[in-house]
Here is the input.
Amino acid sequence: MKELIIIESDPRVPPGLVEEQLRTRRIPFRLIRVHAGEPLPAPGDTATVIVLGGAMGAGDDDAYPFLREIKRVILESVGRDTPFLGICLGGQLLSEVLGTLVTANSRGEKGICRVHLTPEGVTDPLFLKISSDFLTYQWHNDSFDLPAGCRLLASSQLCPQQAIRHGSAVYGVQFHPEVTAAIITDWNGAAARNASFLADFQQAEAEYSASARTLLDNFFRIAKLVPVARGQNL
Here is the structure.
């Protein structure tokens, strides 16, 4: 049976709000921890794919051979227009699969950050009922360019490519709609050594969480995992 899969490349980048929202909506899923050697499904066995972030770079295939398998799943998703959401590293891997540049140590951002929808983003179903100027959480050093054939949906002041769409259902985002206070506490303690990241998040958490949960629900509707409300066109 085809299933929704979540691919976790890094144990310190878990599904967080993605998992919470799936459980809230009672949507079955399978979490695949590729960093622990868990195998990815065979071609054609996925109905929806979510690829989480990770500390590695999109081109670090030799150090992390499982990235090649993730790219295989992404390429299949692109070819079949399978509903796909790539988050941070996941968006960068999508960009690389589509043939454009992922640049290390370029346009990096950390912490709370406002993102602005493009005119196409305003009308895209992924951002239904989300403000054109919404709050996100960022934690990236690398960034991706806009692949040929993709639509640019959102940008930030420092990073022009914050959200892209290929086809009708394949999305990549640079920001993190999955983070929780617990995840940020882990990242903050090990990487930043700066308590302001957590404090800033806690101050903005209500606004961030509302937008993040709405975006995830929108993606679940695009993937036909939850009903579309009357009057909505997805």
Summary: The CA atoms of residues 52 and 87 lie 5 Å apart.
